[in-house]
Amino acid sequence: MPCRIDTPDASLSKNRPAGPLPESLAWIEPELEAIRVSGLERPTRMRSGRQGATIDLDGHRLLNFGSNDYLGYAGDVRLSKAASKAACAQGFGAGASPLVSGHSEAHDALEKAISQFLDVEASLIFTSGFAANTATIAALAGPEDYIASDARNHASIIDGCRLAQARVGIYPHRDLSSLDSMLAAATWARRKLIVTDTLFSMDGTIAPLADLSDVAQRHGAILMVDEAHATGVFGIRGSGLVEQAGCASGVHLRVGTLSKALGASGGFVAGHASLIHWLRHKARAWIFSTAHPPAVAAAATRAISLVTTEPGRRHQLLENASEWRSRLRRANVDIGTAEAQIVPIMTGTPESAVAMAAHLASEGFFVPAIRPPSVPHGKSLVRASLSWLHTPHDLARLAEAIGKYSH
Ligand SMILES: Cc1ncc(COP(=O)(O)O)c(C=O)c1O
Prior knowledge:
Aspartate Aminotransferase, domain 1, binds pyridoxal-5'-phosphate, 2 domains, alpha/beta, Aspartate Aminotransferase, domain 2, four-stranded mixed β-sheet, seven-stranded mixed β-sheet
């Protein structure tokens, strides 16, 4: 059928696709039904207002254990002010990719702030942590290369490996001897790359970074780590687990996100100046995508300065998290081997995770259910993300509600 050309208003309803799906899309409804019957349908909840210790979701105010706002900066007015000031001075849109004309003074200041924060030579910012991972991995590795990836790595790492079209070996979670044998067998590879989350986002476990850097060195492999959930939370300066483990010289690339503890948006990769300069020529999501708004960069820069000047937030958070995990373990709640501010409550099936999350919501807590594909089948869980904003009373109430439900 030829396309109609109407006036803007008239075209609104006449051209809107409606009714049954065309034959080419007829598979959608059965797929949706399969998602529903396996307990994997995901609602999109609507938040009103800002992130904080409480959150208003779909009209219900709940104590918020479901955001990655670990230090309470996402709703902090100091970030909003930094963003407003930059938006007024530099306009809102970046207008082009960084390589063309999108790299503003605000982006430049952010890259310098990240490099100083991490104590590295250079860094490169992306519109998201997801883009930073996919673009960096796909730039570093290709069909002649071997990537060894931890079994619990984030989806953005998995997709980066797919995009690279390299041969990928998945080593069991944190299993260094498997990793060692896999790398030893990849004698044919032009380059070897080890890639891992530092703090695993689903089970709250920590990668053995010092040992990983030894393995990388033994095999002449590149070591790339994703600090998404550790940036701002770990280390004396707050730059992450690499800093805390004292193995910065053995880690070649550090990816992070500005969207979690830093309360803003965007991702980064940081390391040797020449490596970062090379990525400016190879990282496609940086080259072919519009830079994020300068206002976002300014807010992230402000957040880094706050992390530096307010270390008490991360110290308090980690202390609270450690006490909370002990409390749950004493109550025989299965939290696996969690060791940070991300605390999973293992349930097993998707249905049991959804039932527990619904029960907790009925008691006034937002603690989301995490199901496949975010976790393997049989490993569904309810994930509590602790924030500096939570008071001891909030934490005690949630522990009590979980304890009661689990027994
Ligand atoms: C481990 C990890 N890496 C990367 C990302 C992606 O970061 P962003 O949300 O900035 O795209 C996430 C997001 O959840 C994550 O958990």
